[in-house]
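Dear colleague,

Thank you for sharing your sequence with our group. We've completed the structure prediction you requested, and as agreed, I am returning the results in plain text so they can be pasted directly into your records. Please verify that the sequence below matches your submission; if there's any discrepancy, let me know and we will rerun it promptly.
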Amino acid sequence: MNNTQELEAKYGLPSKVIFCKRCVISNQRPASEVEFKHNIKTKKVTMNIGEDGICDACKYAEKKEEISWEQREKELVQLLDKHRKNDGSYDCIVPGSGGKDSVYAAHILKYKYGMHPLTVTWPPILYTDYGYLNFKNWIEVGGFDNITFKQNGKVMKLLTRLSFENLFHPFQTFILGQKNIAPKIALKYNIPLIFYGENEAEYGNPIKDNKSSLRDKAYFSMQNLDEIYLGGVSIGELREKHAVDLADLQCFLPPDYKELEKSDIEVHYLGYYLKWIPQEAYYYAVEHANFQARPFRTEGTYSKYVSIDDKIDDLNYYNIFIKYGIGRCTYDASQEIRNKHLTREEGMALVKKFDGEFPQKYFKEVMNYLGMDQDYFYELQDKFRSPHLWKKVDGEWKLRHTVNKDGADD
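Please find the predicted structure tokens below.
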């Protein structure tokens, strides 16, 4: 532990920076990076690291080794048999963009378990060439029907810029749309099951998420329009100040609570029933849908096949590094340590080498898309640094504390 109580900790983050003893994540990781309101004082749930120094994600990885996956698969088959349709209609929805996880989920449900999935896509803001190829291969090589909802480009650009300026989180409204599209389609076509891939507990989200399903439908629904903010801006301000029609915001908003509550729709994590290992999902996607990794190393980390379909994704991970002191390599290495593909020492070395690397490749293109001056970006970057995480040393910003104990205050 370290003593930083006197320094301001933004975003409701813990003032003491603690690193997990088993992986390389810190207690600064927010449990959810979707912020409905722009209020940096709001109390947020962050990664829990217990008195034993082990994070929840590592504890869950340990529990996965004790689970009877044979029994879990039987539970899955019972669930599928309950909802399986043989009249030519769809019996489940798999949302995704053709990344390794959505390819794995849709393919195994259809070809191993005999389900009839409809795939649903909320497309990336700025597709990469290889990301779009993977999407096409998912549908055409994998063999799936697909509904893609293309957002109003003008509104998507506005909300992305507002998310950037107000939250330093360009994916905030994108994630909301991505989360909400599946239950809306399920309601429209009366499809009883929605399958997401990995259980959120894999990454240390609250232990209540460690379930087979999310039965609290309010999680996916809208009850009070006045309480929803998009890009850190209220719906009212978007309509009045930015002249955005409510109809153009509907795709980002959850379905009506009463309508969803009356339905029989169930939302499940396939990762609850089948042991989920990201590397294995990648190999499966390569074999069954010709999934292609990036032709170069992703900036900020050592991997080539995780979150590669949107050009903004690299900058989004960099912004997370600025806000929370956790870079893309920290996420990748922690996951691979939990799955015993890296040692902690190897993960620490990778974090030292790659965490915080600036994503140059698509930076200018993203700035052009947003209509944002590069100097303005750097001003925003410094505005969103939390004093308890960052310190200026000889004119350069340094993390106060790192997993390698070479921070400015270590």
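Summary note from our side: The chain has 15 helices and nine strands.

Kind regards,
the structure core
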